[in-house]
Write a structure and sequence with these properties.
It is a single chain. This protein is of the alpha/beta class. It has 3 domains: 81-149 and 347-455 and 483-499, Rossmann fold, CATH 3.40.50; 169-340 and 553-572, 3-Layer(aba) Sandwich (Dimethylsulfoxide Reductase, domain 2); 594-705, Barwin-like endoglucanases, CATH 2.40.40. The protein contains 27 helices and 27 strands. A 7-stranded mixed sheet has the order 5-4-17-16-15-6-7. Strands 22-26-23-25-24-27 form a 6-stranded mixed β-barrel. The protein has a 4-stranded parallel sheet with strand order 11-10-9-13. A hairpin with a 3-residue loop joins strand 18 and strand 19 (469-472). The radius of gyration is 25 Å and the shape is globular. The termini are far apart.
Length: 708
Amino acid sequence: MNEQLLKAKIPGEETGIEIRHSLCDICMPGMPCGLDLYVKDDKILKVEGWKEFPGNKGKLCVKGAASREYQYSSARLTQPLKRIGERGSGQFEPISWDEALDICAEQFLKIKEQYGPEAVVWNCGYSKWYRPWLHRLTHSFGSLNYVTESSTCHCAEVMSYNCVFGSYMRPQIPAAKVVIAWGSNPLVNKINMGKNLMQFKENGGTLVVIDPRLTQAAEKLSDIHLRPRIGTDGYMANAMANYIIEKGYIDQDFIDRYVHGFEAYKEMVSHYTLELAEEKTGIPKEKIVEVAELFVSAPNTLVFPGNGLTHRVDGFNLHRSVLSIMVITGKVDRPGTYSPVQETLCHGPGGFRGREEEFINDVKPKDCKPPIGKGHFPLWFDYINEAQGTDLARQLRTGDPYPLKGLAAFGMNYKMFPESDAFLESLKEFDFIMATDIFHTKVCDMADIVLPAKTFFEKGEAKCFSDRFVVWTKPAVPAVGDCRDDVEIITELAKRMRLNDELLEAGYDAGIRYMLEGSGITDFDALHESGEPIVAPNAKPYVPGSYLASEKNTISGKIELYSETIAKYPDYGLNPLPACAEQQDDADIQDYPFTIMTGARISNAIHSRTTGISWLRSQSKDPVIKINPKDAEQLGIKEDEMVFVITEVGRIRLPAMLTEEYAEGEVGMYHGFDEANANSILPETLLDPYSGFPAFKQFRCRIEKEEV
């Protein structure tokens, strides 16, 4: 009987199996998913959803369900390593933690003394839970060169919302009557927003999807699907705005009271006719009118633009042009429209004001050299409190405006950068590299010292979510090998470098208590001991209308259709109005006839973090280039035949998948595979001048069939 119970992994005294709670951190930040871990002898046997956890209520995506293999992967780093071969050779020898940390501290201080603190770059990739501590360490060290993967993800849309509204905003899907998902596929991209969208449909809502791809949301949920040519969305958005203005559908009272720059905006969009939009997008003007009429049909309708819209060389203005439709119709701070988001801790909203900003900036240096990217993307620094990493390789190679000599790479993923292989090679220019990671990566191969980090199962973590909840988990299982958590590594470095930052050196617990002081929680020990989510005593539900009643965090103090912040930079060619253009790379359209879109999410992966997990990899074993069947026929390409995807900077070999997901003249591929990294063939010059974001979703290529 016991053998049967063990085989079935039934918890109880007879089997010695117990259920321990944890949180999944594979695709954070966002709504955390609670996990039930079936543990025997401190080893995880099975992972299920935590049924009582408010975030996911027992549901898990495939990534969370595969987290046991993630935990016990053979690629895990288990001990500190010191490089003994050539950089990039992957030759290391094990050393002790004390020796490793002493070497790192000594080298970083040596670089600081010789070149200045800004010569060391502090990089944070996934996961994001330790960001406040690494950011504070950067500042205590005397530098502003804190870089994260947000240099290419999410922050451009944060910039857009803040540029227009002075606040990051969130769509209120459940209360809406009509929803326009513009470049967003939440059934795959955001599981909790996907659930909201499904509930919205069950409640009788009407869904419009605007996306060049035939996405899951378009195919399974939408009432209307419009497929503009890649990169032409701005023409449609501004033409819709022009139509709404001409028809008198605007909310003039709202505009008069709350909006800055309407007359200039009105004149700008007057040049975007329905005929022009039809010509550029390929969508009949009657369909554009149909969606515009649907949008203005009720007060509680909304459009939410996806983060992917910002991954074009004019993506920032494209995103702004979509937001502006909400502004001119007054669909802001009302049920079923937009409301502001107050992030409490590590992008998680707890319903109260945390002190993360103070924790990071209380030691921010004032008299220091400008951060990476400042001279090329000044607007970024008006909204984002970190360096722009897409300028890192250029500055590393040129030494302009000053040399970069040291790198502390916490979870650094070189594939997030355009011309990824060249970026990886450029790391050889650093005098010293420390890499901290869960798995051994190619960045680790470039490092002088490699430090093994704990997973989310092996450490405790505090999170805020759903505008009211706080949870602080405990370690669920012992660490694999001799691993340490990232904050412990950060605080130990701070001590060894004698930065005299008492709060930072006090470690994770002290930092959490400081940043969550406003929660109203009086017994953090009890919160930590229980590991259960609680409602923060000081959490307050948002009161609709509060945002409109307050002064906006913009230069004009109003919602800005004309950005006074952008107007500060006349020498950079930036437009204060959300005008759009068909900006493309300089590749000759005859030589590179296809537009390629990379990075569309797949359900079993989050960037490249899970491509090494066999269970998940089995769901998409090979990277593919997706081609419309009509294009494939013209090229003489059949299903699964090997082809080359070629751009001006490189080529990738991979099999073809024939699918209607992409329109004729457009192709697409996922970006995270080692053997076919899409970002490696994206020219590093294709950057949005507003945000510095790469054009992951719009560059030119050609497809050639492999000759056997």
